[in-house]
Description:
Blueprint lengths: L11 H12 L2 E2 L11 H11 L14 H15 L9 E4 L1 H11 L7 E6 L5 H7 L3 E6 L1 E2 L7 E2 L3 E2 L2 H7 L4 E7 L11 H13 L3 E5 L25 E6 H4 L8 E4 L2 H12 L7 H15 L8 H22 L3 E4 L5 E5 L17 H13 L1 E2 L18 E5 L4 H14 L1
Bound molecules: 4'-deoxy-4'-aminopyridoxal-5'-phosphate (PMP) and glutamine.
The site of 4'-deoxy-4'-aminopyridoxal-5'-phosphate (PMP) has 13 residues, from α4.
Subunit structure: Homodimer.
Pfam families: Aminotran_1_2
InterPro entries: Aminotransferase_I/II_large, Kynurenine-oxoglutarate_AT, PyrdxlP-dep_Trfase, PyrdxlP-dep_Trfase_major, PyrdxlP-dep_Trfase_small
Amino acid sequence: LPKTYEGSQPSVWVEYIQLALDHKPLNLGQGFPDYPPPKYVTDALIEVASNRNLHQYTRGFGHPRLVQALAKLYSQLIGRTINPQKEILTTLGAYEALYAAITGHVDAGDEVIIIEPFFDCYEPMVRYARGVPRFIALKPKLTEGKRLSSGDFVLDKAELEGLFNKKTKAIILNTPNNPLGKVFTLEELTFIADLCKKHNVLCISDEVYEWLVYKPYQHIRIATLPGMWERTITIGSAGKTFSVTGWKLGWAYGPANLMFNLQMIHQNSVYTGNTPIQEATAIAFEKELTRLDSSECYFNSISTELEPKREFMGKFLQETGFKPIIPEGGYFMMADWTPLKSQVDLDSETDKYADYRFTKWMTKKVGLQGIPPSAFYGEEHKKLGENFVRYCFIKEDKNLQAAADILQKWK
Ligand code: PMP
Ligand code: GLN
């Protein structure tokens, strides 16, 4: 590899998807629903597929019908008129939006603050831009006896403040967070926003789980805080919004001067996204735009649907000896597996970190796959993830029951 890319290693996804193919466990690893998306969404794709005019290239920065729908939705949510041509870019998944946001702004030597645990691609993307990641971990507050919530994990304010300096270019925020499920509060976001404004720092806000928030928590878009629109790029994903992860369609929105930089990276690497998927997603958005306040709106019903699954998983993990951290948002649950340590043959695996050994052993010997959270920490803090496993709960009830049965039988 050229020097900039030296040291790149296959990610946890590459490794664990292969592991699942090889051992065929019950897969609660990679995050995707194991049941179909809403019917009107797949019907939209059928309708598009049979339209002879929707199978050629579309506009590079975003299919017109889709950027219109996105502008309409986010103008309402952000409380300002968003220009569909200049202030939105559609991308190949949220991955490409992240890549364009990072490489479109980070110069050699620029520092980028990353909050741990973080979605793992942030770090290599910053390094590919020759930026310097500066990590800060969310740490648990002491909570006696009660079940841990993702809300118990907080930033040390002085530590965060100490990371901001003249070299700081950007902070990457992810709310609701993957893998922890933390939904940042207004107070936390205000603190971050004030630091961004004080030090003239860009905020890259990964909000792919914006609709997956459990009551009574609320998703707050940092771009809506005073003085933040000007310095925020917000990222979303059709995969998460409509439960179609295989569609790999994402987007970014923000002020035109910042979005121009993303558009250039996109233009000169990918140029344009695929037409039928963008058209079908536009149709899906148009439908939801007519019923945003209704409980039938998928943006509202999805978390209502997922809440019992979250409860069920929290319960069976607790009952089988794990210590789960109940997420406020997203569809993952982290749990401390170390109370079960004596039942695991950790020495049969050779990985450096115990969560990798635990999850590999579980996949092979017990038939249940989870993801090792140390993958979501920078090298210096990987120990903080080692005692945990991440399980995904956007699965059919019968498969969650099967996971519970597997663990009951094993423990
Ligand atoms: N950000 C986060 C926090 C994610 O969990 C994911 C997972 N897919 C992505 C970005 C990437 O989304 P996409 O599949 O749309 O590329
Ligand atoms: N976002 C999903 C997860 O965290 C998928 C990640 C991926 O496929 N790279 O599991």
